[in-house]
Amino acid sequence: MKILVGEMARLHNVSTQTLRYYDKIGLLQPKYIDKENGYRYYTIEQFAHLDSIILLKKIGVPLKKIKEYFASRDVEGMLELLKTKESLLQKEIKVLRRKCKDIQNKINRIETYRRKEDFHQCKVKYIPFRQIAYLDFGKKGNLVDFEYGLKELSSLVGEEAYHFQCMIAGILSREQVLKGEYYYWENVGILFEEEVLQSDAKVLPKGEYATITFKGNVERGVKDYEKLIKWIKEKGYKIIGDGLLLTITDSSYSEFEDEFIIEIQIPVK
């Protein structure tokens, strides 16, 4: 029995353009060509051939690999294709689970901070060890240095990790903190809270941090910063390391500054 291209396409729920492309690349060519009218015909025996192509395409096997398989088609070849694809899918599943976890963590962090009722309040909290990849400006950095530094860091760790697995941090050296300086940073960093992603990342020790959280852009945090420094002194704490200005939400999340959230963290003992 001879089947025209249109009928073959209809029976297998594919387009005629797809069949013509398979014909062109030599993947599945009509068995017969009518010499008088040029019509091209498939046979019933080619149904299984097309079914195999459709199956392999659905699970993501490239046409090149499918064509190689059909050059010497047997069960062993099919098993090899399926096992290879299964292995790739398992890796993709692992990556997707990681992405899902990263997104969930980001959602939880933002929602937790949005529910806070103690903005502008000083307190000490224990924070487990974290890692930070940072860039030293070698000078008093400005906003341009900060943004360019972030781009350099995002290239270092990868865009996906940058957007989903970390928080942006302006770094205030211990000397700056002791002097009460706030308006510039000599370093910019991206902080990871869970696992090691970069071999050259610096470990931030676990311990107690004096913290205060505020809404708005960095400039709005001056009074909160001064309040926190004063509170640290009044409580008899000693500043033992660099301070961090952690961005929870910023202009990449919202155009409204009242929705920006920043937390200042200063290690103390």
UniProtKB/TrEMBL annotation:
Keywords associated with the record: Coiled coil, DNA-binding, Repressor, Transcription, Transcription regulation
Any one GO molecular function term: DNA binding
Top-rank lineage group of the source organism: Bacteria
Gene3D superfamilies to which the protein is assigned, alphabetical: 1.10.1660.10, Regulatory factor, effector binding domain
Keyword DNA-binding: yes
Keyword Transmembrane helix: no
UniProt-listed InterPro entries: DNA-bd_dom_put_sf (IPR009061), GyrI-like (IPR029442), MerR-type_HTH_dom (IPR000551), MerR_fam (IPR047057), Reg_factor_effector_dom_sf (IPR011256)
Coiled-coil annotated spans: 79-113
Domain called HTH merR-type: residue spans: 1-72
Official protein name in the record: DNA-binding transcriptional regulator, MerR family
Origin species: Anaerovirgula multivorans
Lineage, broadest ranks: Bacteria, Bacillati, Bacillota, Clostridia, Peptostreptococcales
